[in-house]
Amino acid sequence: MKTLKLTVIMLLTSAVWSNAQDAMTMFEKIRDEQVPVKVLKTIESDFAQIKKEIKNGEWYAHFRHTIDTHANQGTAGTSKAIPLHYSYIGKMDGKKVEIKFTPEGKLATTKGID
Q1: CA torsion, points 11, 28, 102, 55, in degrees to nearest 10?
Q2: Local confidence pLDDT in tens for the 114 residues of the chain
């Protein structure tokens, strides 16, 4: 019964989403190879020692996903993923650590680092 409810909810959500023009903000785990070189250079130059101390560190991309359905008179339209920021998240000394970068490679914020 739970599976059926979940399936119905997912179908309704996807139907609404596919007809929408509004942007959807998404947060997704990515591989090291998917991180922009500018971001990798910044973390290596500014946080090389701290990165070694972070346990189970993983990269995440935060982006805005849009679909323009009017471009093709109601067909699938064009899809765009616009990066908002990239985060390196893990644990250091038992505390959650997050280092956030702009797509251009500049440091945006840090959490859990003194």
Answers
A1: 160
A2: 656 566 656 665 665 555 545 678 888 999 999 999 999 999 999 999 999 999 999 999 999 988 776 655 556 668 888 999 999 999 999 999 999 999 999 999 999 987
Which of 27, 87, 31, 101 has its CA nearest to residue 54? 87
- Residue keyed to tokens 């190879």: 33
Contact call for residues 46 and 81 (beta carbons, < 8 A): no
Chain center to CA of 53: 23
DSSP state of 79: E
Tell me, what amino acid is at 14? S
